[in-house]
Design goal:
Length: 292
């Protein structure tokens, strides 16, 4: 029953993430600053999970924070490039690119001996073939899926193509960071066995780091020029952050139970759900590239 719960829950989480990416793309297109979204979501995550961490895991907290644990917290907190890539590409690409993560995670986990690999074992070859299939699908979808913005802005094709390439670069960088932090989560929870507390600390650090980056780059913290009211934007972001906090905590718990490779092999479902939601909600056409 635990295995059934884990598998069904991980599939459901991918559907939730895909739905959120579809709506987030619309908000970003209306002018909401992506770094503000990262800061707000991380703050919402930490505030939402703090009472649960205090109530359920207070006895598991270490009495002192050693330097290694602090470095692990900081490393897991680094991220946010996925939102920047989402703004410059599309929900389908933002959902397809993380399909590279299982391959990277599998390689890292094998190198760190968190994942067993025996050349003569049929399960090892199944994992390798599945990883290659996952990588091939992600790369193919990235190349075959054309950007709506790219096709509609033929007159400014060079600018649109540059934005598209930059966005894919952000997404690829975010996948590398995601892969490293996912494995690092598994390592950290071997000594810090408190998934709610881990999410609270890393989300809070992530909000602080992202706010510092926005202040350095932009000179100030700003929501961005949007047709939405500030209250509406904050409400949408906080709601999304609260939902994602539950999903991220569940994934963290699954990583503790089953390891990072199993958790992230479900990420291809997000691309499928994203394409379906984009077509149903915003009437976005499913081209031959995305269908393949």
């Amino acid at each position: 029953m635990e295995d059934v719960l884990i598998v069904s829950g991980l599939v459901g989480i991918q559907a939730v993430f895909a739905l959120y990416l579809v709506f987030l793309k619309r908000d970003l297109a209306l002018g909401v600053h992506p770094l503000f979204v990262v800061v707000s979501m991380n703050l919402a995550n930490s505030l939402f999970l703090l009472p649960l961490a205090v109530a359920l895991e207070r006895k598991k907290w270490p009495r002192t924070l050693n330097p290694v644990l602090m470095i692990q917290f900081v490393s897991i907190a680094l991220g946010g490039l996925l939102i920047l890539g989402e703004k410059k590409t599309s929900p389908a690409i933002a959902s397809a690119m993380p399909n590279l993560a299982p391959g990277f995670i599998f390689i890292i986990a094998v190198c760190l001996r968190l994942e067993k690999m025996e050349i003569r074992c049929k399960f090892t070859w199944t994992k390798i073939l599945g990883t290659l299939l996952c990588l091939s699908g992600a790369i193919a979808m990235s190349f075959l899926q054309s950007s709506p913005e790219l096709t509609s802005q033929v007159s400014s094709g060079d600018i649109a193509e540059k934005e598209w390439i930059t966005g894919c670069g952000y997404l690829l960088a975010s996948v590398v960071v995601l892969s490293c932090t996912s494995v690092l989560q598994a390592v950290t929870m071997q000594t810090f066995k408190a998934p709610f507390s881990l999410c609270v600390v890393t989300s809070l650090l992530g909000a602080i780091f992202t706010a510092i980056v926005q202040i350095i780059v932009e000179g100030k913290m700003e929501i961005g020029s949007s047709y939405h009211s500030p209250t509406g934007i904050i409400g949408i972001v906080i709601l999304g952050g609260s939902v994602s906090s539950v999903c991220i905590t569940y994934q963290t718990w699954c990583i503790k139970k089953k390891g990072p490779v199993l958790v992230y092999i479900f990420s291809p479902f997000q691309a499928v759900f994203s394409a379906i939601f984009s077509a149903l909600i915003f009437r976005q056409l499913i081209g031959i590239g995305r269908f393949i």
